[in-house]
Design goal:
The protein is α/β, with parallel strands linked by helices. The chain has nine helices and eight strands. The two termini are 22 Å apart.
């Protein structure tokens, strides 16, 4: 019988796994333009570390439009269509060490990997398929599950138990992300929080939120795993 994993790694996407060259935010701006006829319509709407559904709610509030599931679906469908078109046009990239880290973790029978992201599941698939790393992840928790990022952790925990038939204790769960929201999200479920300064926040800004681990990037894969103790 194959060994059951004992550690769970939950990855954010934007600023953690990839830099999309602005494709995500630009696609959201195009969706705003399509629906509301306003250029630069995301001004004043926080993007980093927020779920696509919360961003949508805040866009609707900004324009004084009542949120309904049907309108939200229409807006997000526009966004996803633009996203698929814009990713190849932008100069995005995988961030340092990502493929090497994912390969190292995939080779470990004691490690399970999944996503914990504010992206819609379809958006996550579009982005990570474009960069060739979608198939590393068996499951995830997404904006489809809840608009509040801090409510996503339990979805990831439940799916991990469903997939692997084992409950991962919080001290063996690592939540990796590039924003203070990722740190908070991990802390909600008692996980180890791993902050990486490869997104829009500096090392100093992330350190102020006291993550359990803090890296400039994940380029030194052996060093990262040694520091995490796995």
């Amino acid at each position: 019988m194959p060994a059951q994993p004992t550690h769970l790694f939950l990855f954010d996407i934007d600023g953690t796994l990839i830099a999309s060259g602005g494709a995500g935010e630009y696609s959201m701006r195009l969706a705003v333009l399509d629906m509301f006829g306003v250029e630069n319509g995301l001004e004043g709407v926080e993007i980093a570390g927020r779920t696509d559904h919360l961003i949508t709610e805040n866009v609707f509030k900004k324009f004084g439009v009542q949120w309904t599931p049907e309108r939200a679906t229409e807006f997000l469908d526009l966004y996803l269509r633009h996203l698929a078109e814009e990713l190849p046009r932008k100069k995005g990239r995988l961030l340092p060490g990502i493929v090497e880290l994912l390969d190292a973790l995939k080779a470990r029978p004691d490690v399970a990997m999944a996503l914990l992201t504010g992206n819609l599941e379809r958006g996550a698939e579009i982005k990570l398929t474009h960069y060739g790393v979608w198939n590393y992840f068996e499951f995830g928790a997404y904006a489809d599950d809840h608009a509040d990022r801090n409510r996503l952790g339990p979805f990831a925990q439940a799916r991990a138990q469903e997939h692997h038939g084992v409950e991962f204790p919080p001290e063996r769960i690592f939540v990796l992300g590039d924003t203070p929201h990722d740190i908070t999200c991990g802390r909600v479920i008692g996980a180890k929080t791993v902050a990486i300064a490869t997104g829009g926040f500096t090392r100093e800004q992330l350190a102020a939120h006291q993550p359990d681990f803090l890296f400039d990037d994940l380029g030194d894969v052996a060093g990262v795993l040694a520091t995490l103790g796995v």
